Amino acid sequence: MERLPRIIEPVDAELERFKQFFDGALDSPDPLLRSALAHIKQRKGKMMRPILVFLTAKWLGKVTDATFHSAMALELLHTASLVHDDVVDESDERRGQASVNALYGNKVSVLVGDYLLATCLVHASYTKSGPIVEAVARLGQNLSEGELLQLSNIDSVSFDESVYFDIIRKKTSALFATCTQAAALSVGSSAEEVEKARLLGEYIGICFQIRDDIFDYYDDPQIGKPTGNDLREGKLTLPAIYALNQSGDAEAVRLAQRVKQGIATDDEIAWLVDFVKREGGIGYASRAMQDYKGRAAALFAQASPSDVTDALLCYIDYVVDRAK
């Protein structure tokens, strides 16, 4: 069996119910809002985060109504953050399609994002769990702090790996960690189980982001973003940070500073992409990703084998090995 169907199989019924639930939330009687939400529905992905919520809940207990509302709240918060990120990054594309701000402008995009955030909070309240509401609210804080940390780091003259990990822990990793944490809380897990679940999500999230960062160095339309897109947005990710610190090449450092300032030309970005590959940046990032994959898999060392634990281990492999 292919990996993705193997991951979905234990939670197939829950996922189908969730998709209908989620589509219903992305609707409004207001024509402009309904149109923007319909556009967001069209680019719906594989629902990897709700899948992780349901798998974690089944790993530790039984899926409940609180599990569904947790998954809804988190997917809505994630969707809202993407809409807002595209405004901040001035991005015209998302997953190969026009971004909301490209079609409707920044004002509408911000308000659509705000609407999704408000709907997220409604579903968080439906869990009737203070700890889940707090986890979702703290995730919102972390996502904002991560964006601000990333923006403030643009002015830094250093290439600090620890800052990179701080940023991804507050952004991508925090989202996955809250998915698994909320899932554990939704089934009444012990404090120890909740923390174990949270760590699982954190490690998966770090792997996910490093894989995304590696994608930025290869030109493939299936990935959904052009080569060097992060560099065009002034972002130096793990492959570049390693290559710059490892080599100390004066020309590369000069171009990296131009990247941070947002003034690098396409030719300069292409040169820096080749430099990062040549200096082993991709290999270093891949090794770091494999390390976190090992940490995630180790959390199942004492778990009894089942279709759910098998699906979770496949999920980890999928995040690391995915092609887009």
Task: Summarize this structure as a short list of keywords or feature phrases.
two-stranded antiparallel sheet, 2 strands, 324 residues, mainly alpha, 1% strand
Describe the structure.
The chain is an all-alpha fold. 74% of the residues lie in helices and 1% in strands. The chain contains 17 helices and two strands. It has helices spanning 3-8, 12-25, 31-42, 48-60, 65-88, 100-104, 106-126, 130-153, 161-170, 172-186, 191-215, 229-232, 238-247, 250-261, 266-278, 281-298, 307-321, and strands spanning 93-94, 97-98. Strands 1-2 form a two-stranded antiparallel sheet. The longest helix has 25 residues, at 191-215. The radius of gyration is 20 Å and the shape is globular. The protein starts with a helix and ends with a helix.
The helix-and-strand class reads: mainly alpha
- Mean residue pLDDT: 90
Strand order of the largest sheet: 1-2
> What's the number of extended β-strand segments?
2
Main sheet record: 2 strands, antiparallel
Task: Quote the beta fraction.
Answer: under 5%
Tell me the series of helices and strands, N- to C-terminal.
Answer: HHHHHEEHHHHHHHHHHHH
Number of helices: 17
The shape, in one word, is globular
Helix percentage: over 70%
Determine the N-to-C terminus distance.
20 Å
Rg, nearest Å: 20 Å
**Low-confidence segments:** 221-225
Short description:
This protein is mostly helical and 324 residues long. It has 17 helices and 2 strands. The two termini are 20 Å apart.
Write the layout of secondary structure elements.
Elements: H1 3-8, H2 12-25, H3 31-42, H4 48-60, H5 65-88, E1 93-94, E2 97-98, H6 100-104, H7 106-126, H8 130-153, H9 161-170, H10 172-186, H11 191-215, H12 229-232, H13 238-247, H14 250-261, H15 266-278, H16 281-298, H17 307-321
Antiparallel strand pairs: 1-2
